[in-house]
User: Which sequence fits this backbone?
């Protein structure tokens, strides 16, 4: 995963960022299924619906999880790159490192897709990890060569506007312009032309070429939050205020533009980017307020342990069938519980995953790309 697979935890970290990352990964590692089980036991079926992606247009809680991780990756960029630029580390070296990270994530994404298992003939190249890598690389590239916030605002405006023009005004053969359906959107057309292998959606891929490039906007939004948090001369309340105001602004813009430009995650419309990024700003502000400003801690340790090994646990729950493992050891306890047995098993599964991550945390084993 990296040339240095074992790293010691830095002495000073933005704890709220690790906790927010862990909070985000919690839903992937079993938190979503836990919510579904609870909703069925309590009769709150609407809650289970939030744990599924919107079929096409619209926005569910599940649609936030992936872009939030991309936003968080962006928040880390000014901390990772800014300090090195201040130490006169050559820009080419930083670009090379970000490029290497992108390549590793693309390969890990292909592994995650099961391509090595099913064969390359029907393998899926596009992936969540690959999209994270592409977004991180492009946002890093912009931050390295355009470190000023004003310059990056122009880049973000260009990305959001440019993809809006492509999706709304550029005609797709056989469909015309602005047909935002799985078959008619320009994202799917470009994927069918240029993306090798199997497409996740058949006629399009939600992590395809244009989706990955468009999603760079969310990562770039994260760099603004990172720059705000890194500013030493700014007070905590100013940082929180700037992030909260920016978040609200993006959400309002997304809802206004959605009247003619739908919010669609599966083709990463600019309105979706603005909505997801806006929520990312609000969550970052909230977690920073509670953890780093008010220093209300203790509860956050569970999520921080997950956040410190996020890529590892993402791959782990894909490769290891935790449901079978949990049933193997605890099925005899779950069976007498009837309907509550599913709840018991998912809690056990979450506990086993967390204990593994806690062991790695205590041993200072942080596997990152």
Assistant:
């Amino acid at each position: 995963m990296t040339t240095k697979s074992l790293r010691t935890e830095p002495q000073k970290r933005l704890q709220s960022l690790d906790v927010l990352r862990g909070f985000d990964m919690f839903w992937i590692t079993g938190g979503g299924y836990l919510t579904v089980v609870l909703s069925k036991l309590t009769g709150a079926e609407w809650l289970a619906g939030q744990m599924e992606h919107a079929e096409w247009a619209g926005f569910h809680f599940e649609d936030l999880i992936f872009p939030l991780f991309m936003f968080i990756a962006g928040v880390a960029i000014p901390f990772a790159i800014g300090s090195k630029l201040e130490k006169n580390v050559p820009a080419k070296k930083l670009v090379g490192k970000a490029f290497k990270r992108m390549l590793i994530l693309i390969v890990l994404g292909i592994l995650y897709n099961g391509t090595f298992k099913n064969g390359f003939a029907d393998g899926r190249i596009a992936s969540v990890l690959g999209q994270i890598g592409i977004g991180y690389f492009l946002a890093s590239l912009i931050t390295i060569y355009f470190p000023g916030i004003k310059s990056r605002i122009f880049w973000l405006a260009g990305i959001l506007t440019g993809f809006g023009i492509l999706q709304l005004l550029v005609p797709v053969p056989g469909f015309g312009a602005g047909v935002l359906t799985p078959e008619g959107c320009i994202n799917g057309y470009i994927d069918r032309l240029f993306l090798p292998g199997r497409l996740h959606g058949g006629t399009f891929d939600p992590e395809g070429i244009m989706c990955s490039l468009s999603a760079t906007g969310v990562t770039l939004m994260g760099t603004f939050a990172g720059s705000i948090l890194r500013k030493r001369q700014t007070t905590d309340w100013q940082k929180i205020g700037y992030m909260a105001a920016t978040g609200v602004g993006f959400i309002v813009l997304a809802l206004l533009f959605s009247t003619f430009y739908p919010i669609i995650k599966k083709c990463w419309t600019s309105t979706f980017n603005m909505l997801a990024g806006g929520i990312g700003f609000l969550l970052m502000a909230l977690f920073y307020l509670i953890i780093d400003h008010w220093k209300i801690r203790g509860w956050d340790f569970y999520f921080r342990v997950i956040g410190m090994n996020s890529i590892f646990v993402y791959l782990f729950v894909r490769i290891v069938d935790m449901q079978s493992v949990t049933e193997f050891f605890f099925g005899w306890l779950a069976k007498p519980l009837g309907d509550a047995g599913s709840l018991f098993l998912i809690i056990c599964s979450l506990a086993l995953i967390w204990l593994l991550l806690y062991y790695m945390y205590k041993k200072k084993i942080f596997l990152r790309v």
